[in-house]
UniProtKB/TrEMBL annotation:
NCBIfam families given in the database record: PRK00285.1
GO biological process: DNA recombination; positive regulation of metabolic process; regulation of DNA-templated transcription; regulation of translation
Superkingdom of the organism of origin: Bacteria
GO molecular function: DNA binding; structural constituent of chromatin
Cited SMART domains: BHL
Annotated family: Belongs to the bacterial histone-like protein family.
Name this protein carries in UniProt: Integration host factor subunit alpha
Amino acid sequence: MQTLTRAGLIEKLYSHVGLSRSESAKLLEDVLEKIISTLEGGDSVKVSGFGTFSVRRKGSRVGRNPKTGEEVVIEPRLVLAFRPSQMLKNSVNEGMMKKAARKG
């Protein structure tokens, strides 16, 4: 399994787009900052063909401390959600099926 990192994304921009490494880093940081500021403002971010990032409110609920079994009130909070596009789902499923077929 391979983890995609900022450095990896910068390297892909550098090699595929032809920007310098510093320009690639600046471009990536600008895009990520725009996504973050949009989410902080309460708006969704839709990347066509990839998916939608949004902030959702979760209400208060009663949970349980796993160590003691004691009931605990979990305060309302905001959570980040991602909903993949159908194109992304199909692509991932096809890729996984091809990988499984090569192994089996």
